[in-house]
Amino acid sequence: SQDIALFHVDRHYFEGGRYHDSKTQVEMTPDGRVDLVVHDLDQQVLMPFRLHACTVYIGDATSGHWVALAQAALYHTGVWGREELRKQWYKFDDQEAVRMNEKTAVSLCSTSGSFLVFDKLGDADGR
């Protein structure tokens, strides 16, 4: 079974009769890794997770729309005919889906993402 973690980050607050954008940022490595402390009975365990997807609100606190960023795992035939796994980030905006580079996607999710989905890394992926 695949362990995932889902977080909601509140990006807006109400003050003085108006909505404002908050500057909350989720700290993670440039490739989207975050180490979470999981409380299991009487012990704390450090578990590595990597960003898999997020939703981003484009606009201000009173007007805008949502887009989704997600990483797809794709197999393709590489050098010498071997199948290789490649991960590619995509931005889904209404009817359009476009490729994104990892650095841009992770940066956008960490500074603007409202819902963030992380996959738990196994021993082989935990680098």
Q: What low-confidence regions span 5 or more consecutive residues with pLDDT below 50? A: 123-127
Order of helices and strands: EEEEEEEEHE
Kindly estimate the percentage of residues that lie in beta strands according to DSSP: over 45%
Helix content: under 10%
Which structural category fits the helices and strands? mainly beta
Backbone shape: flat
| Separation, N- and C-terminal Cα atoms | 20 Å
Helices, by number, come to 1
What is the number of strand segments?
A: 9
Characteristics:
127 residues, mainly beta, 7-stranded antiparallel sheet, two-stranded antiparallel ribbon, 1 helix, 9 strands
Question: Can you describe this structure?
Answer:
With 127 residues, the protein is mainly beta. Helix content is 9%, strand content 60%. It is built from 1 helix and 9 strands; from the N terminus they run ββββββββαβ. The strands form 2 sheets. Strands 1, 4, 5, 6, 7, 8 and 9 form a 7-stranded antiparallel β-sheet that branches. A hairpin with a 5-residue loop joins β6 and β7 (83-93). The longest helix has 11 residues, at 102-112. Mean pLDDT is 81; it is low at 123-127.
